[in-house]
C-alpha cells in the first residue's frame, strides 16, 4: 500500500510538471502563430495600401497626360484656324466695300464661333475622359477598401478564435487541476486509511502478545498443581 501511494504521488508530480510544460508550450505556440498571422495580415494591408497609393498616383498622372493631350490638340486646332484666317486676309488685298467688310466680319464671327465650338467640344471630351478615369479610380478604391475590410474582418475573427482557444485551454487547465487535486486528496485519504490500519494492526499485535504472555503465565501457574495429585497416587 505504501509503495502504491508513493507511486501515485510520483505520478502526480510528473503530471503536474508535464501539465506545466504543456501549458508553456501551448502558450508559446499560440503566441507565435498569432504574431505570425497578425504580421502577415499587417503586411498584406500595407501592401494593399501601397498598391492603392501607386494606383491613385498613376491615375492622376494619366489624367494629367490626357488633359495635356486634349489641351495640346485644342491649341493646335486654334493655331491652325488662326493661321488659315491670317493667310486669307492678305490674299484679299485692296480696299473693301462695306458689304465686303460685313461679309468679312461675318466670316470672322463664324470662324470665332467655330473655334469656340471646337474648344467647347474639346473641353467636353476632356471632361468626359476625366470623369471616366475618376469612375475607374472610384471603382478601384471601392474594391481595395472591401479587400481591406475583408482583411480586417479576418484579423478580428482570428483574435476572437485565439481568445476562445485561450479560454478553452484555461478551462481545461482548471479541469486538470481539479482532477489532480482530487487525486491528491484520494492519495491523502488512502495514506490516512493506511496509517489507521497500521496503527490498528500494531495495537492488535501488541494485544495478542499480551494475551499470549498472560496465557503462558496462567499455564505455568496451573501446571504444578496438576502434578501433585499424580504424585500422591503413585505413592499409594
TrEMBL record:
<feature type="region of interest" description="Disordered">
    <location>
        <begin position="81"/>
        <end position="102"/>
    </location>
</feature>
<protein>
    <submittedName>
        <fullName>Coiled-coil domain containing 162</fullName>
    </submittedName>
</protein>
<feature type="region of interest" description="Disordered">
    <location>
        <begin position="207"/>
        <end position="236"/>
    </location>
</feature>
<feature type="coiled-coil region">
    <location>
        <begin position="141"/>
        <end position="207"/>
    </location>
</feature>
<feature type="coiled-coil region">
    <location>
        <begin position="5"/>
        <end position="32"/>
    </location>
</feature>
<dbReference type="InterPro" id="IPR040401">
    <property type="entry name" value="CCDC162"/>
</dbReference>
<feature type="compositionally biased region" description="Basic and acidic residues">
    <location>
        <begin position="216"/>
        <end position="236"/>
    </location>
</feature>
<keyword id="KW-0175">Coiled coil</keyword>
